[in-house]
Amino acid sequence: MNKKSLLARWQGDQLSEVNRLIAAITGKSNLHHKDRSFPASPYGLTEAGLEDYRGVTLTETLQYLTVQGVDLSYARFEDSASLNTSTFTHCGFDGVKLDGRFVTHTFSHCSFRGAKLNNARISKEFHDCDFTGCNLSKVIANDVSFTRCRFSGANFRWAIFTYCRFEECSFEGAICQDSSFAGSRFKGETGLLPVWDNAILDHVKFLSFP
Asked: Residue 86: which pLDDT band, with cuts at 50, 70 and 90?
């Protein structure tokens, strides 16, 4: 299914129910609930075995949740909805639009291929995540850890990644024009680093594997 059909398949009553169920588990006010698992999708599982929420429209922020095995590719985040202070494992966010939103806490084995994260506020940890073709322009990230992440063709224009740690990450074709990585640390093969253009690299440390 293409993006258009994924978006069009969701009916109003389905979206209302999905957001009602998420509202019942998300946020600090629901931390006392024993079962805060992500609701099952009315469309079952994708071919990859993930809960099929592709193309859904969310009006609720996913906050203080532990989410595993959910595909939210091409999802729409309306109002102030975002990914805030949650743990996501084996989740799909391909093609999502989270510009100017929070994308925070811990992400492991997640895909953001072609996602629009421009102007987003990113924090904490990303492990084995794929940002291929992702728009990261004007992102603000401070003291964030990226381990074995792929940034092939990613757009870092005017982004600020200060005091971040990049370990075994690849940047083939990434665009770093007018960005800042001041105080950050890169560890891995030098051949995987980006072309820096005029990026600010004050106090950056480069550590190669022996």
From this structure: very high
